[in-house]
Structure formats: C-alpha cells, structure tokens
C-alpha cells in the first residue's frame, strides 16, 4: 500500500510533521527555501551579522529517509501537488503548512540562505550608519527589533510609532506597565495613537534622512526605518479552489482533528489555518503533533482521533535583547506574568536555536 505524505512548507509546523512521520511513511517535504528559518531569530540576525547564521537550519539534516524538494507549490488537489516547474508530486496524504509572510527583516525575502545573509549584512551596514531609527509598528516584532538594536547600539535614537493607543492589548496590565518601564529605561521612545500620513520617502532598511508627519500633525525625522507590521497568509497556491475554499482572510478551514474541511487525507497546520488563536510557532508545532498522530493512525488503518483545541488565554514571550523583556504564560491558576529572567531563559538568550538544533540534528553533544 502506498504511504506518501507530501508536506507543503517546511516552517515550524511543516518541518515538525515531516520529522515526526519520517519513520512511518514516505515523506516528501516541499519548500522553495534551502533551510528552515527560525523567524524568532530574524531580528537579532539583523543587529548581529556574526550571529545571523544561527537562524537558518539547512533542510539536508532534517530527514533520515524522506525527500526534500526545493520548489514552490503552485496548486494542490486531493491527490497531490503541482510545483512551479510543472513537476507533479502524487501523494496519499497532504499537509498544508505554508505559513505566512512578514515584512523583512522579520522574515527573509530571499529563498536562499546565502542571499538572505547578504541582505542582512547590507541592512546592518545601513543601520550602523544611521543615528536615528524609526520602527513602524509597536507589536511584538517592532518592540523586539527595538530591543535588539538597542543592545548593539546604546546611543542610537530609536522611536517606535503605531496608530494603536495601547501596547499589547489583551495581555495583563502588569505586563504592559513593566514593558513601558523597560522601554523607558532603554531609552526607546514610543509614539502611540497616531499613524504617519504617508510612508517615509526612503525605502525601508536604507540609510537616508527623512521627515514624516503623523496624523496628530507632529513631525518626526529619522535616518532609517523598518516596517514591523502587516502579515499575509501564504495561501496563493490554493486560490484556484482545486482543494479547498479559503476564508475572507485567505486561511484554510480546518476541523478539530486539523483535517481540511471536506477531506479525510488532507491536513493543515500553523499560520495557514483558520483556528481562532494568535498565529504562533509554538501553536504550529502543537498542530504538527496532532497531525502526525492522526496520519500515523490512518496509516495503521485506524480513525484519526487526536484533536487540537486553541488555548483559552493568550501567551507571549517578548525579549528586549538578551536580558530584558516581558512575558505571560499559562498556569493552572490562569495567565501568569513572568519576569524578564524567565523571558531571557525561555527565549531571549538563544531565541530557540537550541531547540531547532535538536530537531535538525545539528546540536553539539
Ligand atoms: C520576529 C518574529 C518573532 C516571533 N517570535 C515568536 C515566538 O517567540 N513564539 C511563537 O510561538 N511565535 C513567534 N513568531 C511567530 C511565528 O514565526 C509564526 O507563527 C510561524 O512562523 C508560523 O509557522 P508555520 O509553520 O505556520 O509557517 P512558517 O514558519 O511561515 O513557514 C512556512 C514555510 O512555507 C514555505 N512556503 C511558503 N509558500 C510556499 C509554497 N507555495 N510552496 C512550498 N512552500 C512554501 C516557506 O518558505 C516557509 O519555509 C515570531 C514571528 C516573528 C516574525
């Protein structure tokens, strides 16, 4: 009996499913990149080019038996996938795991690690030459970027602008208070509740002085800016409707067993799904466990019974450099606001690189 599982997208969710099923099935992992990108490390990769290579894990070492095809999927149907070259991959099971795209530098634009590292080195040089930095977007990505820049350049003027009036809505007030206190101590300025009337005249990530006006009429001059807002779901390859309809946000509708609605052998994980939760790597990896269990059950001729239920409370780990930051984690007594030492220990120190070195078999013993 044929047992091919095609996993489309090798991010947090896809790489985890592919690895988990490598001994159970004929796994084919499809991704245009040559490496898994640990997006949590992207911002440090910009601030510290000597560290940047840590955010990339070549796919070569992920699977012992399975195949990795370095291509982009352009269409999918219940029996397989069509790739950009026109090549067809037939499969008994499909796992859709193409995630989402963030504005550079939060996720790289280039598919090759060498080109992505070149882009980071270039942006670092431009940043080094700029005294005043503007970050558009005060969500976790914009604030983490500000923290990474501050740790490398203690004297730069850093301003973060956002139209929203409050930081991190939905999290505990103590967390927000601590965040404001730490940003103040780091000398990171916030301009909340007012958006620029027009984007800066220079391209993002390039050195060049500009002045912009915000909605409240005030002016702001800086020498470089970065976009830290806007996420788009990578579901274009499903737009032909050959496999599934998409929600208004371009997401894939899934059941609690993470099967794509209307299909027994097609699953989806990660940012691509329409699950009602924040889009996070941690959740994508939990989805991967559920999907791997369900496909393994089906391969044994059993029913897929593992289910995924989104967490009731939001969680976050938001480092400000290697030592600072704020966090909120679930606990039996409800959401727990954690110290910057905990944030640093769980995320800030290595940005999860140790965990992915284990997954990719590159950890030093
Ligand atoms: C700076 C930053 C920090 C973050 N920190 C955290 C954190 O601390 N904790 C947390 O839980 N989350 C964090 N996140 C969120 C996390 O990165 C996302 O939720 C996660 O990337 C989603 O994983 P995924 O597996 O769905 O897809 P992705 O990681 O987006 O991977 C998708 C993969 O699919 C590939 N792909 C795309 N289109 C195609 C196609 N047509 N054919 C084939 N392959 C394709 C891509 O090349 C990519 O490799 C952070 C994000 C950023 C940007």
Report on the structure:
It is a single chain. The protein is an alpha/beta fold and 365 residues long. It has two domains: 4-32 and 71-103 and 231-299, 3-Layer(bba) Sandwich (FAD/NAD(P)-binding domain), CATH 3.50.50; 113-229 and 313-359, FAD/NAD(P)-binding domain (3-Layer(bba) Sandwich). Helix content is 26%, strand content 24%. The chain has eight helices and 21 strands. The strands form seven sheets. Strands 5-2-1-9-18 form a five-stranded parallel beta sheet, covered by helices on one side. Strands 13-12-11-16 form a four-stranded parallel beta sheet. Strands 6-7-8 form a three-stranded antiparallel beta sheet, with no helix packed on it. A hairpin with a 4-residue loop joins strand 7 (80-83) and strand 8 (88-90). Helix 1 packs parallel to helix 6. The longest helix is centred in the C-terminal third of the chain and has 19 residues, at 281-299. It is globular. The two termini are 39 Å apart. The mean pLDDT is 96. The site of flavin-adenine dinucleotide (FAD) has 38 residues, from helix 1, helix 2, strand 10, helix 4 and helix 6. Residues 8-14, 30-33, 39-40, 42-43, 72-73, 97-100, 102, 106-107, 141, 144, 234, 237, 270-272, 279-282, 284, 317, 347 line the site of flavin-adenine dinucleotide (FAD).
